[in-house]
Amino acid sequence: MIVAFSVTPLGVGEDVGEYVADAVRVVRESGLPNRTDAMFTSVEGEWDEVMAVVKRAVAVVEERAPRVSVVIKADIRPGVSDGLTSKVETVERHLAP
Asked: What are the phi and psi torsion angles at 82 (to 5°)?
C-alpha cells in the first residue's frame, strides 16, 4: 500500500517546518520507501508497518504541539510493489511526446 499523509501542528504559530521535519525524519528513519513533497509525505509498505510509521510521525509532533491535524489518503493494491516510482513513470510515459 501507499499512504500519503500530512501532519500539521496546531497552536504553534505559522512557521511549522521544524515540526513537519520531525515527522518526516521518522518516516525516513523507518527504512520504508518514501517521498516528501510540498503537501504530503508518501510511504509504501505493508498495512501494519506503514500505519505504525504514520502513528510514530504523529506522536513526535504531538510531543511538542498542543494539537495535531492529520490527513491520510491510502492506495491499497495487493501485489504491487515500487508503486511510488512506477505510478509516476506511467504518467510520465503518457506525457512524453
From this structure: 60, 35
Q: What is the pLDDT of residues 52-70, one digit of tens each?
A: 999 999 999 999 999 999 9
- Cβ neighbors of 54 (< 8 A, separation 6 or more) are 3, 5, 43, 70, 72
Q: How far is CA 72 from the centre of its chain?
A: 8
Q: What is the pTM assigned to this prediction?
A: 0.89
79, amino acid identity = G
Q: How far is CA 18 from the centre of its chain?
A: 16
Q: How many CA atoms lie within 13 A of 87 on its CB side?
A: 12
Distance CA 84, CA 36 (A): 11
Q: Which of the following CATH numbers is that of domain 2-95: 3.40.50.970, 3.30.70.930, 3.40.50.300, 3.90.1740.10? A: 3.30.70.930
